[in-house]
Write a structure and sequence with these properties.
Strands 1, 2, 3, 4, 5, 6, 7 and 8 form an 8-stranded mixed β-sheet that branches. 43% of the residues are buried. The longest helix has 13 residues. Strand 1, helix 1 and strand 2 form a beta-alpha-beta unit. The protein contains 7 helices and 8 strands, in the order E-H-E-H-E-H-E-H-E-E-E-H-H-E-H. The protein is 33% helix and 21% strand.
């Protein structure tokens, strides 16, 4: 399998007031939780794209994971994805933001299985979806094909990831059971809510 895990942890966590990747979330940090859950993707050692809190996050990484500093982190996530595509040439990327920290291993496994079944399309995009309130909603993480990620390098601009999705071919989804693909961590209130889920 050629999917590399890429955790997106470059933001300044201004609304939360502390480093989001390392906050205590039921005895484990979002970083630790996602690295453990994403270990089913064995295509390459995991990358953690850092920015505002590079030194703190790099010091907290377990053996085998690597920090990749995006010095232009304030311009958006796409720059970090472009750096990751350079660091993992030839690999498709599973992009997991630390903003969605409770994604379980079975979601990563479902993404890997669906990606293989689709033939690992070089320009593909695969997102998990879950039923909520009678509709299907899409969440994180997402898998981006190796050639699709390279579009960010080719443009030389820090485009929003939504523009990358618009260029995907094919655009794929896999249904999962876990509502955790939708659970954002942005504010202290979010942290309190997520702590109740893991207590």
């Amino acid at each position: 399998m050629s999917v590399a895990l890429v955790l997106l942890a470059a933001g300044a966590s201004t609304r939360l007031g502390t480093c989001k990747a390392l906050v205590d979330l039921g005895g484990r940090s979002p970083l630790a939780r996602l690295l453990e859950a994403g270990a089913v993707l064995d295509g390459a050692p995991p990358l953690v794209v850092t920015g505002a809190d590079h030194a703190l996050i790099a010091a907290a990484l377990p053996p085998g994971a690597a920090a990749l500093e995006n010095r232009r982190w304030s311009e958006g996530r796409a720059g970090g994805v472009a750096l990751a595509s350079q660091a993992r040439p030839g690999f498709d990327l599973c992009l997991a933001p630390v903003d969605v920290p409770l994604v379980p291993a079975d979601v990563f496994a479902a993404l890997a299985q669906a990606w293989r079944a689709a033939g690992e399309p070089a320009r593909g995009w695969l997102a998990p979806s879950v039923a909520r309130a009678g509709t299907r909603r899409f969440g994180h993480p997402v898998v981006v094909g190796r050639d699709l990620a390279l579009l960010l390098l080719a443009t030389g601009k820090d485009l929003p990831l939504s523009s990358l999705r618009a260029s995907a071919d094919p655009l794929l989804a896999v249904a999962v059971e876990s509502q955790r693909i939708l659970d954002d961590l942005d504010t202290p209130a979010d942290l309190e809510r997520l702590l109740r889920l893991v207590s």
